[in-house]
Amino acid sequence: MANKSEVKLIGKWSSPYVTRVKIALNIKSLDYENFEENETFNPKSDLLLQSNPVYGKVPVLIHLDKPICESLIILEYIDETWSTALSILPTDPYDRVLARFWAAYIDQKWFPCMQSIITVEVEEERKPYFEVMEEVVERMEDAFEKCSKGKPFFGGDRIGYLDVAFGSFLGWLSVIENEYERKVLVEEKSPNLVKWAERFIADPAVVGLIPETERLVKLSKALQIKWRAALELQASVMVRNPSSVIDWSEFVSAFTPNVP
Q1: 29 in a domain, yes or no?
Q2: Which residue, 62, 79, 159, 235, is most buried by CB atoms nearer than 10 A?
Q3: What angle do CA 201, 32, 223 make, to 5 degrees?
Q4: Residue 100: closest CA among 165, 146, 152
């Protein structure tokens, strides 16, 4: 078992990708030192820039002074390094590949739509993103039946890799459903996922880690102002000089603090 000084986590309370890592550390009953980045990454800490010089984004797990980046990679590292504790990835090779496939699918489809829904100003422009999210839910409902094999979680009797990958977004999903008055997880269409979400949030490894909806709403409204100001500035500069592009990644990284 690791000492607290051996394991460090650089993250942000609002990041679903950081939440993944915290849940994984809880599953393994690992103590760790938490380093919280500034909410807008302005400025980014020296520790973050030294630990992830390529992307400069969270989460970063530091184990024995060695940095590991990318949330899904970190989950696998935790599972393999502390292999004597409860497993996170399925033991069966095919089940393991299946879990990785769906986790990658979630990162490619789910979160970009959530970000777009919050960013756009016109209600009509949100519709296609909601439709994609509903399609994802439909596919994940089917995936749950296959992966869970009739048990409470994607991982079986207890939460595993895919549960953590998908469930970490439930806080931001609540923001979207409440702010835009459109339910994505609906019992009539996805009864298994609705019940799964309730079980996931109540799991001992998860309790207290999914950010409160009210706090996320406050953050999302602040970020909307920054994003839109950045987009307007970029558009203005490009009108005057089409070859110029403003780097507004700092604004985006406040909400998308990981390249999955």
Answers
A1: yes
A2: 159
A3: 60
A4: 165
User: What digits encode the pLDDT tens for the residues 198-230?
Assistant: 999 999 999 999 999 999 999 988 877 776 676
pTM for the model stands at 0.88
Residues with Cβ within 8 Å of residue 230, at least 6 apart in sequence: 246, 248, 251
Give tens-digit pLDDT for 118-173. 888 889 999 999 999 999 999 999 999 999 999 999 999 999 999 999 999 999 99
| 3-class DSSP assignment, residue 9 | strand
**22: CATH:** 3.40.30.10
Identify whether 112 is part of a domain. no
Judge whether 176 and 123 are in contact, CB under 8 Å: no
Q: How many folded domains does the chain comprise?
A: 1
The strand pairing partners of 68, in sequence order, are 61
In this structure, the strands spanning 60-63 and 7-11 are antiparallel
Q: Provide the 8-state DSSP code for 6.
A: G
Alpha carbons 30 and 22: distance in angstroms, whole number: 9
Is 41 contained in some domain? Answer: yes
